[in-house]
Write a structure and sequence with these properties.
This protein has 612 residues and is mostly helical. The protein is built from 29 helices and six strands.
């Protein structure tokens, strides 16, 4: 500080170029940035990046309740600590403080997205990993970005978030690499290690593939030792094949730290990431990529190269753009048709062989289903009503639709890459909603199943048994684009919840809106039919009556209209007959009761509820 300022304490720009020991570095650092750094303190400066644009909307925590499925208590907690910018790439929470630069917050969202979708086709490379990290999961993680360590620590204990990872991007000339490192730790700890614990996990005996490699190279030269750890007798140059027993002593000796740090160091060299810092603080780590790769075992390198896990294969510079950077892949997924049984296809954990593809359905993702660590329990879901066809006049792509922020990417851009059907447009519609002919979601071609989604075996790629079609219906606005364990998307496996089946459902009342909230119309209902179709309107009618198209409570959606064996949750005596015993407002109240399977009464009892 004293070398950069004059006698009066003000910054002298000329001194930046007259200080010989720092001139090269300081010429790269904007004078305004130095001034801000000195004025505000080293731990409160984050550079506003100007070389990256982000496709992810930054919204307030309150808005993220609807757009991201953020829990209300999480939103309130963020607001309480002045974190006012939220993005949710693939459902993963990125939260930035009010003082954190907007563009750098977008960079952080891009980095998370790229780690999950390396080929940038809009679909997670390992869907189960994205699902494990996403909001609503028991292992949901957050990347929190503040202008100081103290600011990031305020977000350590967010409700409904398993673990918050600080970006540590304060006091950095280029924040990309440190954001990438912390994001990588996030994906490793709460994603890869949860889905494939035998490969990436943190067992105390260092038995996972990653930890075994860490232990194999512990205190060996060439090899590994974390700077916070100490090798026995200070010997960091043990002969190959004679590693120090793990864990060694030190501040990062537990597998959750030591293995994670080792894995990142190996991956950043493997992917040719520029400006790696491992060489600076590990005396035994090789000084070039060729030597690093020669040091690593074949079994560990097989993990790095296996497309099953979706580890990064090339440098990550903070840019993310779906479809802008296509990457050729020789990986052919194992895939099951969406019709018929949807039993999950298990992937080998660390295979480098090319699987034999199964017959593809009309919409086949490029990624294969991934192994779940849970044993899902199937549940019956969402029965639905019935009658006969009144087909739409035609099924065609909407020429007005285009990918968000890119008017050149219309339905024709989706083409044969059907994974782009889960890309959102500028009008907030998914590709599968606007490009029905291209995406194979023409409504007049197929009636909804007689029992709605009740017999669908679709389940989220995370393997959580509660994430079925009823769960999708609770927030269909985003969940219809979620991947399933069988490789299909929710809009394929849960057609009633996602409104991708059925004949003409009539027209929603454009004048209807929630009582006292005119902005909450039938479009608002359609984004979360599993929880909003019971909403009372200003005109006294329930949403399912005035928004039949949104709620699929209409005669044209199903083959026939008849009541099912629906009954109210936890009460077998309260079935469709119980609904018919009432009249007027009381019957309407019973029609929005939730059943054992999670569906509304008006879906299971369409005759009783006059929702045919």
């Amino acid at each position: 500080h004293t070398r950069l300022t004059g006698a009066d304490g003000t910054l002298s720009p000329e001194s930046l170029f007259s200080w010989p020991t720092a001139s090269t570095a300081m010429r790269r650092f904007p004078i305004a940035a130095v001034a801000a750094l000195l004025a505000r303190g080293a731990n409160s400066y984050v550079r506003q990046v100007d070389w990256v644009e982000s496709p992810f909307d930054l919204v307030t925590p309150d808005a993220a309740i609807e757009s991201c499925g953020l829990a209300k208590e999480t939103a309130r907690a963020l607001e309480g600590i002045r974190y006012d910018k939220v993005a949710c790439p693939f459902g993963v929470l990125v939260a930035c403080s009010a003082a954190y630069p907007t563009s750098t917050c977008g960079l952080a969202a891009n980095v998370i997205a790229t780690l999950l979708d390396a080929n940038q086709d809009g679909v997670p490379d390992a869907p189960a990993v994205a699902a494990a990290l996403a909001l609503g999961s028991d292992t949901a993680a957050a990347l929190v970005c503040g202008t100081s360590r103290a600011e990031e620590r305020k977000a350590e204990d967010l409700p409904r978030i398993d673990y918050s990872f600080g970006s540590q991007s304060y006091d950095r000339w280029d924040p990309t690499n440190v954001i990438l490192e912390e994001s990588f730790h996030l994906v490793h700890q709460n994603g890869w290690a949860m889905i494939w614990p035998e490969v990436f996990g943190y067992a105390s005996d260092f038995s996972s593939t990653v930890c075994a490699e860490t232990a194999r190279l512990q205190c060996v030269s060439p090899g590994w030792v974390h700077p916070e750890n100490k090798c026995p007798d200070g010997d960091e140059e043990r002969a190959p094949g004679d590693p120090a027993p793990s864990p060694v002593r030190g501040g990062c000796n537990e597998p959750s730290c030591d293995c994670n740090e080792f894995h990142w160091s190996a991956v950043e060299n493997y992917m040719y990431q520029p400006d790696t810092d491992t060489w600076d603080w590990s005396s035994s780590w090789p000084r070039n990529r060729a030597d690093v790769m020669a040091m690593l075992s074949d079994s560990y390198k097989a993990v790095l190269e296996d497309p099953t896990y979706g580890l990064p294969q090339k440098p990550i510079m903070g840019e993310y753009c779906v479809g802008c950077q296509p990457v050729a892949s020789t990986y052919q997924p194992t895939y099951q048709p969406t019709s018929g049984s949807r039993n999950p296809t298990k992937q080998p954990v660390a295979s480098t062989k090319t699987p034999t593809p199964q017959p593809a359905a009309d919409l086949s993702p490029t990624k294969s289903p991934t192994k779940s660590t849970k044993s899902p329990t199937k549940q019956p879901i969402a029965p639905g009503p019935a009658p006969g066809p009144a087909p739409f006049p035609g099924c065609e792509d909407d020429d007005s639709w285009h990918k968000k922020r890119d008017s050149n990417k219309k339905c024709s851009w989706i083409g044969s890459n059907k994974n782009r059907c889960v890309v959102k447009g500028d009008d907030e519609r998914w590709g599968f909603e606007a490009c029905r002919e291209t995406c194979g979601t023409c409504l007049e071609k197929e009636a909804c199943p007689k029992d709605g989604d009740a017999k669908s075996d679709w389940m989220h790629a995370s393997g959580d048994d509660f994430k079925n079609c009823a769960w999708v219906a609770e927030f269909s606005g985003n969940r219809c684009a979620q991947p399933g364990m069988d490789g299909s998307f929710a809009f394929q496996g849960c057609p009633v919840a996602c409104r991708t089946c059925g004949y003409d459902c009539g027209v929603d009342d454009e004048n209807w809106h929630k009582e006292s909230e005119p902005e909450k119309t039938c479009d608002w209902v359609a984004a979360a039919t599993g929880v909003r179709c019971d909403t009372p309107g200003e005109d006294g009618t329930r949403a399912y009556k005035s928004c039949p198209k949104a709620c699929r409570a209409c005669g044209g959606a199903f083959d026939e209209c008849k009541d099912s064996d629906w009954h109210k949750n936890n009460d077998l005596s309260k079935d469709c007959g119980w609904i018919t015993q009432a009249a007027g407002a009381i019957r309407e109240q019973r029609c929005v009761a939730k059943g054992e399977d999670g569906s509304y009464g008006f879906l299971g009892c369409p005759v009783a509820c006059d929702s045919c």
